[in-house]
Write a structure and sequence with these properties.
Elements lengths: L3 H20 L1 H23 L26 H11 L4 E6 L2 E6 L2 H10 L11 H6 L12 H10 L12 H17 L4 H18 L9 H14 L8 H4 L14 H29 L7 H14 L8 H32 L1 H15 L1 H4 L12 H13 L9 E2 L4 E3 L2 E3 L4 E4 L1 H5 L43 H18 E4 L15 E2 L5 E2 L5 E4 L4 H16 L2
Parallel strand pairs: 2-6
Antiparallel strand pairs: 1-2, 3-6, 4-5, 7-10, 8-9
Bound molecules: protoporphyrin IX containing FE (HEM).
Protoporphyrin IX containing FE binds next to helix 6, helix 13 and helix 18.
InterPro entries: Cyt_P450, Cyt_P450_CS, Cyt_P450_E_grp-I, Cyt_P450_sf, Cytochrome_P450_fung
Family: Belongs to the cytochrome P450 family.
Cofactor: heme
Length: 546
């Protein structure tokens, strides 16, 4: 969801335009004129008489920074430029689009939090509209529709309300560990099941039955469709919206083709669970899922002859938001937890010791519950360190400025796209000693052997657009982490010679920063772990089915 892909996408769009030019020089000249005009109008005409723009590397004529910013791991390059130009805000432009990158927590807090109302907008996501997304909070521009969606979606996820989902989350945590013990070679299915089961149940009341559930596949397909669609607001349709009406077979419209190819998948994700839920309601089944609750309000208003501000399309889109925003992020975070525990056996052992001493495991033989979590400080530090090591959206989800602004004598024009460089903030050597090292103790005070470093900030965004699901996500991750530490032994896999050999897995830094599927060895940590998991799962299954 972050920036590197938008540069990449522009490259694809632009090189396709150049290909077209081979057969149609007039088209190239026309497009060049449009680009030059939009660059002038969007950028320089607005800057006349204002303070200077923030610094940044020199741009190329016409193309601006499109060839300057790397496609991969741009967040690292931005962090280097911030040092080189001795600034916390960098400025870039390309084809009339302007963007700034905020490289310190101070800049992000000042602009996105304190001046939040000026940075609550998003760029327009025309390509996502073409892909068939219903109104979706994450992509909505600032305005009454956005505010209505946020007002409806936020309440069930505030900290005081997410307790209603704890039984579900614990059940899925137990299922994950049991799945990983029973099918260690297929631990990723257990990961995907864990994340999608939680969001489908909350959004629609749908149960994911078994490892072969079609819902797991649909969630995977959607993740693929979104993951490869490029960064939001980066396609030629986003730059020049009228191009969405061009035929998609034109050589330079490959992203429109992509949107149309994946449209059925997106429509399935937003449509199928919604239709299934409407059917269960029509058959008289009620549950407390988001859709059932909203449909209850909708029916009641309709019966009273009152206008429904929140339309059926809105309910459909808002429910899909829960799945889109909450599924992949949770799955990717759980993969990171497995990775860091595997890579850092001493951390794993320390966390096991913390759990064992609390649960007195050998005598009582029980698994961690919600009431144990506040008494597991080291487990919590592991989660904080996981957030810091690899922010999933290293450049956040872009905000956009509503009006002209000046920050530390630098001009930020209206309509500028704003990327918080969360990775740079989490890896700032002035704040974190040896930031590339996974060291959960760094947050402890010095007298307890730590460095007194602050918890990372920004992984869930900033200001008015901050993630609504962070309390839910944190609960999911903490309960699954504690259950894993208690029941699983996670080690390097055995190689062909039967040795455990450390390796660095592959990563993808285009858009989101995610670890690619990797091999690991997962076994039950104690002789009773599996039976304990199975017994508690059975009890919870009865409970959550009610
Ligand atoms: C580890 C898990 C998660 C991470 C790292 C994460 C991260 C983020 C980030 C970085 C943003 C952008 C905030 C901004 O623009 O400043 C965001 C927005 C959002 N997240 Fe999450 N998220 C996670 C889980 C969830 C879950 C479980 C839900 C489900 C309810 C959710 C729902 C949303 C929504 C609806 C938005 C859009 C908010 C808006 O634009 O007003 N997220 N998230």
């Amino acid at each position: 969801m972050a920036q590197p892909q938008h540069i990449n996408a522009m490259k694809q769009d632009f090189s396709s335009l150049l290909n077209l030019g081979a057969s149609s020089p007039i088209a190239v000249l026309g497009l060049a004129a449009i680009v030059l005009f939009s660059v002038y109008r969007a950028l320089w005409s607005r800057n006349a008489g204002n303070p200077p723009l923030p610094p940044g590397p020199p741009a190329e004529p016409v193309l601006g920074h499109y060839r300057i910013v790397p496609q991969d791991a741009a967040f690292r390059r931005y962090a280097d430029w911030a040092k080189e130009y001795d600034t916390d805000v960098l400025f870039f432009h390309s084809f009339g689009t302007k963007w700034v990158v905020l490289n310190t927590l101070a800049a992000a807090t000042e602009l996105l939090d304190k001046r939040g109302s000026n940075y609550a907008d998003r760029p327009r996501f025309v390509m996502f509209e073409e892909m068939g997304w219903s109104p979706t909070l994450t992509w909505l521009r600032w305005g009454p529709k956005y505010q209505l969606h946020r007002k409806v979606l936020q309440p069930p996820f505030v900290k005081s309300k997410v307790a209603q989902y704890t039984a579900l989350q614990r059940r899925e945590a137990l299922r994950f560990c049991l799945g990983a013990i029973d099918h260690p070679e297929d631990w990723l299915t257990a990961v995907r099941r864990f994340s999608v089961s939680i969001v489908l149940k909350i959004a629609y009341g749908i149960e994911v039955e078994g490892r072969d559930s079609p819902w797991i596949k649909l969630a995977g397909d959607t993740a693929h469709a979104v993951g490869k669609s490029g960064a939001p607001a980066s396609s030629i349709m986003d730059r020049i919206p009228a191009t969405r009406y061009l035929p998609d077979w034109l050589p330079f419209m490959e992203r429109l083709r992509y949107a149309h190819t994946w449209r059925p998948t997106i429509q399935n994700l937003t449509g199928l669970p919604f239709e299934a839920t409407l059917k269960t309601r029509a058959a008289g089944t009620e549950n407390n899922s988001f859709v059932h609750t909203r449909m209850g309000h909708w029916d009641a208003n309709k019966a009273k002859g009152q206008v429904n501000d929140f339309s059926l399309e809105d309910i459909k889109g808002a429910a899909a938001t829960i799945v889109i925003a909450g599924n992949d992020t949770t799955a990717a975070s759980l993969m990171l937890l497995v990775l860091y525990l595997m890579q850092n056996p001493s951390v794993q052992h320390k966390a096991q010791a913390e759990l064992d001493s609390l649960l007195n495991n050998k005598e009582e033989n029980r698994l961690p519950t919600w009431s144990d979590l506040p008494n597991l400080p080291y487990t919590n530090l592991i989660l904080q360190e996981t957030y810091r090591m690899n922010p999933l959206s290293p450049l956040g989800i872009p905000h956009a400025s509503v009006a002209d602004d000046v920050y530390n004598g630098m001009f930020i024009p209206k309509g500028t796209i704003v990327y918080p460089n969360v990775w740079a903030m989490c890896h700032d050597e002035r704040v974190y000693e040896r930031p590339g090292r996974f060291w959960p103790e760094r947050y402890l005070p010095e007298e307890e052997g730590g460095n007194g470093e602050p918890f990372p900030v920004g992984n869930f965004g900033f200001g008015r657009r901050i993630c609504i699901g962070r309390a839910l996500a944190e609960n999911s991750l903490l309960i699954v982490l504690a259950t894993m530490i208690s029941t699983l032994r996670i080690e390097w896999p055995l190689d062909e010679e039967g040795k455990r050999t450390p390796f660095e897995p592959e990563w993808s830094f285009r858009g989101q920063a995610i670890v690619m599927p990797f091999k690991t060895s997962i076994t039950a940590r104690t002789t009773t772990a599996r039976s304990l998991l199975a017994a508690e799962l059975e009890a919870l299954e009865r409970h959550t089915e009610e």
